[in-house]
Design a protein that fits this description.
alpha/beta; binds zinc ion; four-stranded antiparallel β-sheet; single chain; binds adenosine monophosphate
Length: about 475
Amino acid sequence: MKLYNTLSKQKEEFVPLEEGKVKMYVCGPTVYNFIHIGNARPMIVFDTVRRYFEYKGYDVNFVSNFTDVDDKIIKRAIEEGVSSDEISKRYIAECKKDMDGMNIKPATKNPLATEEICGMVDMIGTLIEKGYAYEKNGTVYYRTRKFKDYGKLSHKNLDDLRSGERSLLVTGEDEKEDPLDFVLWKPKKDGEPFWESPWSEGRPGWHIECSEMSKKYLGEQIDIHAGGEDLVFPHHENEIAQSEAANGKEFAKYWMHNAFLNIDNRKMSKSLGNFRTVREISEQYDLQVLRFFMLSAHYRSPLNFSADLMEASKNGLDRIVNAADNLKYLMKNAQTDTVTEDEKQRFAATAEFVEKFESAMDDDFNTADAVAAVFDLVKYINTNAGTENSKEYLQKLFDLLVKLTDVLGLIVDKQEEILDDDIEKLIEERQAARKAKDFARADAIRDELLAKGIILEDTREGVKWKRA
Ligand code: AMP
Ligand code: ZN
């Protein structure tokens, strides 16, 4: 299985740190508004990466944060006259609804930056002790030039960067030893949320948040760190500088970055007025269509969003769902149960599509080709399944279609109700998560069940559930 590593600028064979396991961290959104369709791209792409690892039998520990303290959140809170906390909580809940609609699996853990400040303060302390950071008037800066590998991810030359950055020096920043130094901790301004620290009452810089949350939930070394390509520099470059200096180890083995999503061949931006939220799309389309659209391109190619392409995606997805519906109809009306010799051979021929699907995904998650393999299977189903076939054979075709589309996170079997056993299992998992104080996971399970029409009620006698 090969994946493109931004660090080496090459496709590399995936070798996990620990056999059978993948530790993966994806930088999550800053929650000050509904997420836009650009934010949805890394969510869909890396959820698909996770699903394929799981399909291959890996146990994936998938951590993705919410940045819930930030200038944009504070600005929005001031505009609305509410607390920052209210803004971030509101948009985390909204984001989770959108993610559910796009069939993004709940993360193993969604840490919130504001709940991890203690660890960030500790990490900053370690960096100061090791000489990688210094404090000036309550602000702590990272001493960039001390980290010898700085620039290794973005392939930037430190000297070029330094001469470029120097001209950008603004007043108030001249207390830095070097223009390239970046903030680890900054003192509060009036009315801003703040936390205690040895340096000032204030808040952490954005980069240190991910270094700490990744370490806390996945350990000092992880397999994959991912996000959109705009995060390569400076965010991920700075994360490497922080984590590797503090922990004395290589931080992430593989760095994966998705290319950008544009609208009508232009960059999506508020000033151009072409900014689209996932919620807006959901008013027009099932979000499965958006997911299908995103996967129709390779994640490292820029992708253009347009009304025409969404229509084409809808038609493409319909073709797959129709094949599944047709199989269900045939299964219900099948005259015989057991698979015949001829059917065995016909089913064996589908191995070709599975191979095509897997080799596409093994080649740096080429979902565009994987989708083409699914279409090949659909075509095969449409010409090799009929009223004369046995239930068992039809079921096998159906299961295969579901198995492959599930890797892509596409639901082709909508009407299927969640079984009582599965509900009980999820409730048990939720109780265990609560016991372990993993409330985010517990909430995610409750939301997942709710999305399937299952309502939970916590009573003194235990958890009760009912179908809505
Ligand atoms: P932000 O909330 O800006 O930190 O972004 C959250 C995630 O969305 C990051 O991984 C970004 O790289 C990614 N992202 C933001 N805009 C786009 C876009 N137009 N296309 C693809 N990814 C994006
Ligand atoms: Zn990050």
